[in-house]
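so my prof wants the structure for this chain in the tokens format not the other one, which i didnt know existed until like an hour ago. anyway here's the sequence
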Amino acid sequence: MKKVIKIDGMGCEHCVKSVKNALGELSGVEVLEVKIGEATIEIPEDYDFSVIVEALDDAGYEVI
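here's what i got, hopefully its the right format
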């Protein structure tokens, strides 16, 4: 399932890299694109989205 995540707190290319790394470490998540303010990922239909929210929170970003 393709999903676009809106992310607050991303303001530069360093932020893009941090978000890409945080998402890339999650099993079952395929990172398709990350740009300032959002990320596009591919996840299984039954994936627990709270895992993604927590990983981004740990990296210093907020899902909006």
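also thought this was worth mentioning. The helical segments are 13-24, 49-58.
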